[in-house]
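Internal tracking record. Fields below are filled automatically when a chain is submitted to the structure queue. Please do not edit lines marked as system-generated. If the sequence contains nonstandard residues, flag them in the REMARKS field before resubmitting.
Queue: standard
Priority: normal
Entity type: single polypeptide chain
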Amino acid sequence: MSLRKRVLNSLDLMGDWAIGIFNPRRAFHRKHFRRMGRDGEYRESFISLMRARGYKSASTGKGLTPWMGSNLSADAEMRHDLPNMRERSRETNRNDPIGSGITGTFVRNVIGTGMRPQGTAKNARGVSDKDKNDAMEAVFDDCKDKLALAEDITYGEYQRMLMSKTLEDGEVIAKMAARNPRDPLWFEVIEIDRLQDPLGQIQELENGHCVKDGVERDAAGVPVAYWILKSHPGDSLMKMLSDNEAIRIPRDSVNHLRFNVNRPGQTRAVPALHAVLQDIRDLDLLMVASLKRVQIAACLAVFIKSETDVDDIMDVTAEEYGFRMDYNLEPGMMFKLFPNESIETLVPNFPVPELSSFIIMLARRIGSALGVSWQVILKDFSDSTYSSARTDLLESRQTYKILQHWFIRKHLNWEWKKVLENARLRGDPRMRGVTDEDIKSVRWIANGWPWIDPKKEADATKTKLEVGLTTLRDEAAAQGKDWEDLMRQRLAEELREI
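SYSTEM-GENERATED OUTPUT FOLLOWS
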């Protein structure tokens, strides 16, 4: 070591000693960082120790449950898995009672018989404009049951179809349609399988737009159009070959409903049951296995064992050997055996987990993922107390309200706007004087939920009305009623009594 380095080291040691008198912690840090710089083994040991003190969830050591993480983008991560997830989700809704029941429960609680619009346009004085609101509601009421013209279903059925497909597939498309400009507008419901990249079309378009998973975006990443196949890719082969062409539909004419969008840049959405499909499948297989066990146990399997040599068993028929295989077993039957023959019975006796507790455990996992209780999943409130059942229902209703709010903002408001604008373009006299701002003023009344404790909740509602924390309109809407219809009916009943 050179004289200069020895002098510097001596000065460092003297400095550490002097600093250590007044600030021992700082002196220790000085020694540590100097050693990190000159001692390679010390440095590597310290870094390894720091790694060992990191997050356990990032560890890949032995004995831990394996992870399946990736650093792919949202679209790249789901592009290959999405078709399988949709197929399994559809199979679950078709064939599995619990999976089908989950979707049905959500659709019934979110949509029910269908949500109804209520115009809320106001005049220049800021007061509700009854004439305009009644006119807009009348125009929409005339069109609503013909909005799904191709499906030939009512407006309530149309809403339930959209919600059901959103839950089952993760997404669905409603496209504006009309036979000619003079006819009222209606909407074509399109399964998401038809949303695909145009055949033979490169991803980058000449105008700087990019097509990804059937959605065309501009340079800023904003969707501007959708590429939709003329026919479903699962149709017959001949129809696919002759009609399988993607058509560009501008965004203004298409409403792409996606609920499970959780990552920036995510183009497509996953089914609502994506995280619990395997649990539902396991639950179904468990019940099938238990049923088979009971069926086997109900049968008496008897085998005749013989020590007599037989040249060729294929040439020995049941009759020649002295018994038949098509006997119907009846109590008291007796069989005679040949010499050296004995009977062995098959009694199935394999362990099966406690079915009830296992079903509840899986139902808890499913309910946790979907935001509802396991009692809601199984429709089983037999062992619930009043307070626990009330808590379960209130918690589940928060999930339903989120879906209701999303469906209203994402689809129903768009649908109301398109129908009324179309009526105004067709010259409907009821739309005279109705402005764009008037059309935007709408609220939707969903089916209400019955009170869990009618007396207590009625008293609470009365108190909130008295202190001004709520309005009759909001309370009536919570029960699925129109407050104006309610007031008119009450007035008619009072006048009749007079």
